[in-house]
Amino acid sequence: MILPIVAYGDPVLKKKATDIAKDYAGFDELLKNMFETMYNAYGVGLAAPQIGLPIRLFIVDTTPFSEDEDLTEEEKKSLNGFKRVFINAQIANEEGDEWAFNEGCLSIPDVREDVFRKPRITIEFLDENFKPQTEVYDGLIARVIQHEYDHIEGILFTDKLSSFKKRLIKGRLSNISKGKINVDYRMRFPNQKKKR
User: Which of 29, 142, 162, 191 qualifies as a cystine partner to 137, CB 3.0-4.6 A?
Assistant: First the structure.
């Protein structure tokens, strides 16, 4: 089932998410719905807070990035088919010189800005079978993971912008929170009541 994506301005996006247990009710269905929702919106990542759930869960599928002409064959190969589930994730380490990349977010449609992040991360998490994993990622994969990880920490990419950049996009962010935006996927705006 395609779920509505929570728009900028909803308090759930600013809340630090809580861990989930192996017996989380309806987990398999939730995962299926999250992937369906992400693909429907042409996203490469989706965090549970973006569908209104303040839990430490996010998914990533970087395959669409593998079609970028500017990437090397090796980069394309690593991005193609990279699909993961991250439960109760903790970034243990970030290293390297920060680099800028133009980021966007399904919860903040039509706003894209350069964000600086470190290129290499070590992350500890549970996979979809709740098995503990420790992985090291770099480049675009690390960036997508960092972006989604921020969601479970209550951080949006716009929080990482300079105060000047924030002032420039303030009106657009306000319009998004009021639902004054055209998107081609389901969204839930802060002033809308939840549909049961």
Answer: 142
Q: Any catalytic annotation for residue 148?
A: yes
165 annotated among ligand-binding-site residues: no
Q: Does domain 5-188 have CATH number 3.90.45.10?
A: yes
pLDDT of 74 higher than 50: yes
Q: Where are the domains of the chain?
A: 5-188
Q: Is 151 annotated as a binding residue?
A: yes
| Candidate list 29, 69, 94, 148, residue with the active-site label | 148
pLDDT digits (tens, 9 = 90+) for 124-134: 999 999 999 99
Report whether 44 belongs to an annotated binding site. Answer: no
The 10s digit of each residue's pLDDT in 154-193 is: 999 999 999 999 999 999 999 999 999 999 999 999 876 5
Q: In whole angstroms, what is the distance from residue 156 CA to residue 105 CA?
A: 8
User: Please, which residues have CB within 8 angstroms of residue 108's CB and are 6 or more apart in sequence?
Assistant: 7, 8, 156, 157, 158, 173, 176
- Alpha-carbon torsion 46, 27, 5, 37, what sign? positive
- β-strand 57-61 against 83-95: which pairing, if any? antiparallel
Please say whether the beta carbons of 8 and 39 come within 8 A. Answer: no
